[in-house]
Amino acid sequence: xxxxxxxVLWVGSILTVLSLIAAMWASASIFAILTxxxxxxxxxxxxxxENAVVKSVRxxxxxxxxxxxxxxxxxxxAAEWK
Length: 82
What we know:
Structural class: mainly alpha
């Protein structure tokens, strides 16, 4: 159970219990259903992981392959990425 799911469960259960104490049966059932739906939506099991695409670049000086967030080329030390 994730932290977001725990928060949803706490808030939803508090609102549901308060509605039941006030004898508001319709709103208590709506809160319970909404809590279940949001709890289910925050479930991370069964989802595909997000694949971050990192595009490589070439050094303008020596042609070595690097990543655009690198400050300098690991081979020659130049800062010219193309």
